Amino acid sequence: MPLSTSKAGKILVLGGARSGKSRYAEALLTGHDGARTYIATAEARDAEMAVRIDQHRKRRGAGWLTVEQPLDLLAALEANCLPNNAVLVDCLTLWLSNLMAASRDIVAETAGLTAALSRLPGRAVLVSNEVGLGIVPDNDMAREFRDNAGRLNQAVAEVADEVVFVAAGLPLRLKP
Questions:
Q1: CA–CA dist 134, 121 (Å, integer)
Q2: Is residue 29 classed as helix, strand or coil in its secondary structure?
Q3: DSSP codes joined into one string, 87-107
Q4: Catalytic residue check, 56
């Protein structure tokens, strides 16, 4: 059962890999009266990722509009985060990976996302990996990713109405 009972606002759901954060985020929107849009940032670049994407689709079931948007998250949010529509973004860390691979300006993209979240009228649940709890990565690119992910999560948490950390499928409310 979801810890959050909020029907509006912006919710950030953090957790480690396979922590249950996506399932938790989906449950937050179960029973939503309006439309539900799943904004997917993943790209099936290998067989393992294709299987993961397929598992997520099957678990969601009917009743979701899926928008695949690996880079232009802002446009997807602006088109779908409407007064009677709830969106689920899964996930910010894959979006960040895509931005880094495309040599996009991470600071500007983060600022654009947080500004949009603050002004868009619909309900949004955003999923992101917490990557700062492990060992320090052994290479520059991995450290850059970890640092960017930490800054992205902090920025989104600042504008979110609620922040929930999920570990072993169990939610822990961080904000409010």
A1: 36
A2: coil
A3: EEEE-HHHHHHHHHHTT--HH
A4: yes
State how far the alpha carbon of 77 is from the alpha carbons of 3, 39, 119, 144, in Å. Answer: 24, 8, 11, 26
- Residue linked to tokens 């939503």: 32
Q: What is the mean pLDDT of residues 113-138?
A: 94
With cut-offs at 50, 70 and 90, classify the pLDDT of residue 6.
Answer: low
Tell me the pLDDT tens digit for each residue of 42-57: 777 778 877 877 777 7
- Name which of 20, 70, 22 is nearest 45 in CA terms: 70
Task: Please give the domain boundaries of the chain with CATH numbers for all domains.
Answer: 10-175 (3.40.50.300)
Contact criterion met (CB below 8 Å) for 109 and 99 = yes
pTM equals 0.91
Measured distance between the N- and C-terminal CA atoms of the chain, rounded to whole angstroms: 18
The active-site residue, picked from 56, 151, 161, 167, is 56
Whole-number average pLDDT of the chain: 90
Give the DSSP H or E segment for 8: none
